[in-house]
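cron nightly-structures :: item 1 of 1
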Amino acid sequence: MSRRGESNQVADVTRPGRRAVLRALAASPLLLIPMPPVAAASTSRPSAPSIGSSDVLAGSLGWSDLDTTFAPDWMAALPDTSNPTTLSLPGTHDTMAFSASFIGATQDFDLATQLRAGIRVLDIRTRHIRDAFTIHHGLEYLHANFTGVVRTVTDFLRENPSETVLMRMASEYRETENTRSYEDTLDWYIHENPDTRDLLAEYLWTPPAGYDGRIPDLGATRGMVVILQSFTATGVYGPRWGGSDMDIQDDYIIPSLAAIETKWSNVRTQFERAAQGPAETMFVNGLNATSGEDLIAVARGVWPISIAKGAPGFTGIVPRTEDYLRENGTGRTGVVMMDFPSAAVVEAIIARNFS
């Protein structure tokens, strides 16, 4: 069977029509509006610079402060009997979309920075192309591959053996030019690929014989990455994302910035459910949202970054979450999957495990 490596991948990632849309929007004066990360009424947080088209098309806008917090080993203080379902865990949605176009960007900082800041749940979207996995956000290639993800995560775990990284792994965009199944390619990374097999042999948690599908305790997974399986396979690689022991809020399409109110209502409700729900259930709260393929909404500034950080007249999901966690200082948050997380939000989520 042919074994074609990631270096041979072709990034057929931007359709001609989409390129035209990007060029038109890049020239639009709408991209010059100032985008403060918080409500105008706040006086304690700095305002953001204006966004120019060159900044937008470059991807990350560089005005997050996630790199100012440092929590590489915060799980060391948790007992081995702790189960992730009982914890408050900061995570990132579309973890690798830190160098995407403004339509696709969801993060300001790279994977290594996220992990050092305390992020412990990842969202890795793999496109199966030419018998290898590239990393995508929808149709957009993120100039990354699965081998790079494995290296970064295992480097982090080597330096911080007290930690566990949960990695939601999903199949993204269309599969093309493959000679084998998605599962066969994953097995190749685990058992055959010389760039990843030794790393995964040491750092990938493997379900034991008779595995019941539940999320394992920290004592069984310290220094390891646990796959949260969000792809079709005959084998079992880890707990099933969306399984019976998960309760997920993921309402991610909004038509306008005014609809941030509705999104926030869903987020707040899920926080309340997590604080009061059964300990054996993993509550997942998706703070991310987008306008999808609604180009009118895109032209009006309904982007992941404006939804997360805010825009003039609209308080974003991230500052709302900062305020909520400060005002409601105890109780489990569950897994919080975020676009453009702030240092304050990550620190507040981690602190819930020790209050």
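cron nightly-structures :: done
Residues 63 and 345 are 15 Å apart (CA to CA).
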